[in-house]
Amino acid sequence: HSSLLALDPSQPTSTQNPSTGGSGNYLIGVGRADCTGPVAEIPLMGFANADQVGGGLLTRLYSRAFIVAEPDNSKRVVFVSVDIGMVSQKLRLEVLSELQSKYGELYRQDNVILSGTHTHSGPAGYFQYTLFWITSKGLIKPSLQALVKGIVKSIDIAHGNMKTGRIFINRGTVENSQINRSPYSYLQNPASERSRYSSNTDKEMVLLKMVAGNGQELGLISWFAVHPVSMNNTNHLVNSDNVGYASYLFEQEKNKGMLPGEGSFVAAFASSNLGDVSPNTKGPFCINTGDSCDNPQSTCPVGGAKMCMAMGPGTDMFDSTRIIGQNIYLKAKEVYASASQEITGPLSSAHQWVNMSDVSVTLNATHVVKTCKPALGHSFAAGTIDGVGAFNFTQGAVEGDPFWDTIRDQLLGKPSNETQACHDPKPILFSTGEMTQPHPWHPDIVDVQLVTIGSLAIVAVPGELTTMSGRRLREAVRSEFESHGTSGMNVVIAGLCNVYTHYITTYEEYQAQRYEAASTIYGPHTLSAYMQLYRGLAKAIATNTVQDLPSGPEPPLFNVTSLTLVPAVIADRTPSNKAFGDVLQEVRPEYRVGEVAEVTFVSANPRNSAENATEHNFLTVERYINSSGSWSVVHNDASWETRFYWTKGLLGQSNATVEWHIPSTTEPGTYRIRYFGHYKKIPLFRPAVYYAFEGISSAFKIINL
């Protein structure tokens, strides 16, 4: 690794406040809240695969908030990591407006970072720009509301439990958990630059450990670059993927005896420069022949690009999620335990809105280049080895396809010559910057944001930087601080923040036009523009001139119609002679650890629950306690060991199946599974009414082997 990744022991200590003594340098608050939303019939956000809609729940989604304030409370910053694909502009603007009505000017666009973990298994439907609105099947109010509510609640909890405390930083190398999924693009970068790094992915995890003055452990934030796509595009269960599983393991360990989602310790595993980084470590193979398809086009001799898929290390996607998540967790545990370098010093935050379709970038004394109106290239439609596209598109396309171009011209209009020239060598598939019906298809106005906590700088990026793009941006910010007399800054990239703008490749990677480059929507100079902009923010913080930064053009908030292709929830019905919650397929009388207990109930649409009870729990696994004659809950629907499947039948009938994958740590004894739902009745000429119900399996025994 190059020197810029090394820890710098020369911490700025002059700003330390001696009056706080050993108890801490900051006020720190942490909070976690459920933001799961509807788990059925809603498209999942990430792979843009129309067939991939929710059909149940593997693990809950959470918003995890961290507030750091100066001891005299004069300045504060907020970092929120949310178990979703990305933060959208609409989501951010709604959260900020809620915060303003609650807290006035305390939490603002400059000092609140909202970052998505980038799981591809969370509900969609919270976007205002038309491209995402289409892949989400519309604006889905319950989805958006669950996110706004969950994020604000996590900040409320953190705000309400501020304590004097200390922050420590540490780093470690995570092995066997990622591959570069566009190695041919990476090789376009200059050899002299590549030779400074030992790998074509960033294996380094940066971790912040937060401890209260009284010694109570509060939480952690880890930044590590990997795509949370261990769960692939055939999955229908809402879940937080590999990084979410790492959070789950750390929180379960620290909140002993608590159910998932409970307990005061908060562990966020946040996204970083993961643009070209896959967790599917076995690499790309042709699913029909078993041959490798690690070639510049990621294509197979038989069946083309559609057959080229990367596999994770496990026996199936659940197992791969577990393995990668556990790798990340185990490294974090080690890095957390040995964290001793303290972060001290003042807090700062800087933010600007920028019209990214029109930035002039000064490359050197003689060269000024420009960004472009947003557009997606042909290879965007190819997808990646983590999730292939629907048609015969391949990655690395530098020429258009007459067939698709003709259809595009007829349906959506032809890209202008100016936009085509600006994006060269990208053959444009969708000229989204020139598509404005019913609303613009892509954002022009984008957030750039930088927050510093002492010697730590968090660069909040509105998209997915590739490995080398992230390295260049970190270095640019670090050297900018250095040139203004602030040396030894620890710079981390926080990904998927504030507004989604797809990918950001280097200029050299852009020339190869694989998926990430085709999805670099503001053209070949996107990264250079961001480097210039974030340098500007770093300079303002380093020279204490943040107040002079122009705030830039405000983003629009469209009145997006609630029209959606998601089916309406009709009245729920039961089969004849059955009631809601009745058991259709019973558990067996006994199981051994390692087996799967399974029970199927007469159910109702789970969307009723999302709309009527926030943080609704669909299931419990309970153990019978002989001494008290009562049942005790050992797992809920957020537990990794439980899976909730919902199957829609005809005319309002449906089934729910609960699986419990019995872990080896399970104590022998008597158990049962309970299911909780709401059914909807629509009386004549009156509003719908919802009724809670539950189902209980027979008791069953778990015996030792």
From TrEMBL:
<keyword id="KW-0862">Zinc</keyword>
<dbReference type="GO" id="GO:0005886">
    <property type="term" value="C:plasma membrane"/>
</dbReference>
<feature type="compositionally biased region" description="Polar residues">
    <location>
        <begin position="10"/>
        <end position="20"/>
    </location>
</feature>
<feature type="domain" description="Neutral/alkaline non-lysosomal ceramidase C-terminal">
    <location>
        <begin position="535"/>
        <end position="702"/>
    </location>
</feature>
<keyword id="KW-0378">Hydrolase</keyword>
<feature type="active site" description="Nucleophile">
    <location>
        <position position="278"/>
    </location>
</feature>
<dbReference type="GO" id="GO:0005737">
    <property type="term" value="C:cytoplasm"/>
</dbReference>
<dbReference type="InterPro" id="IPR031331">
    <property type="entry name" value="NEUT/ALK_ceramidase_C"/>
</dbReference>
<keyword id="KW-0479">Metal-binding</keyword>
<dbReference type="Pfam" id="PF17048">
    <property type="entry name" value="Ceramidse_alk_C"/>
</dbReference>
<dbReference type="GO" id="GO:0046514">
    <property type="term" value="P:ceramide catabolic process"/>
</dbReference>
<feature type="binding site">
    <location>
        <position position="464"/>
    </location>
    <ligand>
        <name>Zn(2+)</name>
    </ligand>
</feature>
<feature type="binding site">
    <location>
        <position position="118"/>
    </location>
    <ligand>
        <name>Zn(2+)</name>
    </ligand>
</feature>
<dbReference type="GO" id="GO:0046872">
    <property type="term" value="F:metal ion binding"/>
</dbReference>
<dbReference type="GO" id="GO:0017040">
    <property type="term" value="F:N-acylsphingosine amidohydrolase activity"/>
</dbReference>
<feature type="binding site">
    <location>
        <position position="227"/>
    </location>
    <ligand>
        <name>Zn(2+)</name>
    </ligand>
</feature>
<dbReference type="InterPro" id="IPR038445">
    <property type="entry name" value="NCDase_C_sf"/>
</dbReference>
<feature type="binding site">
    <location>
        <position position="503"/>
    </location>
    <ligand>
        <name>Zn(2+)</name>
    </ligand>
</feature>
<keyword id="KW-0443">Lipid metabolism</keyword>
<feature type="domain" description="Neutral/alkaline non-lysosomal ceramidase N-terminal">
    <location>
        <begin position="26"/>
        <end position="532"/>
    </location>
</feature>
<dbReference type="GO" id="GO:0046512">
    <property type="term" value="P:sphingosine biosynthetic process"/>
</dbReference>
<comment type="similarity">
    <text>Belongs to the neutral ceramidase family.</text>
</comment>
<dbReference type="GO" id="GO:0042759">
    <property type="term" value="P:long-chain fatty acid biosynthetic process"/>
</dbReference>
<dbReference type="InterPro" id="IPR031329">
    <property type="entry name" value="NEUT/ALK_ceramidase_N"/>
</dbReference>
<feature type="region of interest" description="Disordered">
    <location>
        <begin position="1"/>
        <end position="23"/>
    </location>
</feature>
<protein>
    <recommendedName>
        <fullName>Neutral ceramidase</fullName>
        <ecNumber>3.5.1.23</ecNumber>
    </recommendedName>
</protein>
<dbReference type="InterPro" id="IPR006823">
    <property type="entry name" value="Ceramidase_alk"/>
</dbReference>
<dbReference type="GO" id="GO:0005576">
    <property type="term" value="C:extracellular region"/>
</dbReference>
<keyword id="KW-0746">Sphingolipid metabolism</keyword>
<dbReference type="Pfam" id="PF04734">
    <property type="entry name" value="Ceramidase_alk"/>
</dbReference>
